[in-house]
Amino acid sequence: MIEVKKLKKSYGSVHVLKGIDLKVEKSEVVVLIGASGSGKSTLLRCLNFLEMPDSGEICFEGKKVNPQYNDLNQMRQEIGMVFQHFHLFPHRTVMENLIEAPVYVKKMKKEKARQLALELLEKVGLGDKAHVYPHSLSGGQKQRVAIARALAMRPKVMLFDEPTSALDPELVGEVLAVMKELAQEGMTMVIVTHEMGFAREVADQVMFLDEGAIIESGSPEQIFESPREERTRQFLSQVYS
Amino acid sequence: MDIIEIFQATLPGFTRAAWQTVQLTFWSLLLGTVIGLIIAFFKISRNVVLKGIATVYITVIRGTPLIVQIFAIYFGLSHMVVLDSFMAGIHALAIHAGAYIAEIFRGAIQSIDKGQMEAARSLGMKYSLAMRRIILPQAFRRSIPSLGNQFIIGLKDSSLVAYIGGTELWASALGAAADNFAQFETYFINGLYYLALVLIFTFLLQWIEKHLNVEKRSVSA
């Protein structure tokens, strides 16, 4: 579904990504782990070209994407993204947040978009919050709305950029539960997270990044039980015990 | 003549002139807001030419006195277009306020969290659509206090149109004082008219601000 070859990105003299190769199959859940500054968020943001890579290739559904010629807006419609800080539209109600892109980008009929939005809100357990403004929601609720907003475009892939890092500890579970349900339904997902327990439970493939390179990747059992690389072991001993 | 008599004597003239001031202010600020919005877009554009135009515009207009701009348009352009003092006044005031309003809009647009644009783009929205539907409504709300301030300045700035033969409030004071020789009383009363207009304006702005903020404003979402 997504294939990345020799992806490089630097800010000035800092090489954030030093030639990344990765492959995400349909319905696969790939979790990126690593210390902050390892480049995992940048890698994720390159996948939908919110960050422009300096070199390398990104293929989506077998076709190479060239940001100069291809319609990124078309591609982004099929790749949902969830941010650490939610980024809900504060001047719109929850319902309006959800129907914005379907109505104004996909030109869906408002009535149909509303119906879809309600279904998605039910799915994330917020059916009763359709007509409130985001500021009255808790962090966990905001993030679930953000997930529903991304799903409203019926994407083929979902990207999650540290979706629970800005949440109070007691609110993390409700967001992870929604993500787990999505994974079970067969959604293709790429997730950057520090929730190792969740990664272990949900991931098909775990990749460990350090200093802009994928040091090690494999099944959760392999990475968490018997990591081959010393750096992976070090990292895991710090965050996961 | 005491101040009450002068007040009564100037009432019809000042009221008519105050209406002129209101019209001058309204049209110049309306046009100025449009100019401001366009210049703000030029200023944040990645196009070097547009950015350059905006920078030069803002630098020149903010760097020269309003009275110079009014004279330049009224007398300076007379060989190309003949504008009466009212029309010349509207345009000069609009061009002047436009530079300041541009900076207000630019600041407000850039103050919106970058995540808002990213979230919109990640949903497949084009830059222009994201700007129109997501960024501008929030930026506009955020710019209202500064915009209100600028509008009040604009109202008082309109007094300079007196010097190209305008018939607004300050011109009317100059005329009245020349007739009755009661300079202090006449100018004092004239100042009260401006104060009254500014107060009405302030209440209006407060009402708008309150109205727009109901339940919709939050720092982060």
UniProtKB/TrEMBL annotation, chain A:
User: An example Gene Ontology cellular component term from the record?
Assistant: plasma membrane
Localization per Swiss-Prot or TrEMBL: Cell membrane
Q: Which UniProt keywords apply?
A: Amino-acid transport, ATP-binding, Cell membrane, Membrane, Nucleotide-binding, Transport
What range(s) does the ABC transporter domain occupy? 2-236
Gene Ontology molecular-function annotations? ABC-type amino acid transporter activity; ATP binding; ATP hydrolysis activity
One Pfam match, given by its short name, reads ABC_tran
Report the membrane topology from the UniProt record.
Peripheral membrane protein
UniProt family annotation:
Belongs to the ABC transporter superfamily.
Record's protein name:
Amino acid ABC transporter ATP-binding protein
**Species of the source:** Thermoactinomyces mirandus
- What is the phylogenetic placement of the source species in the record? Bacteria, Bacillati, Bacillota, Bacilli, Bacillales
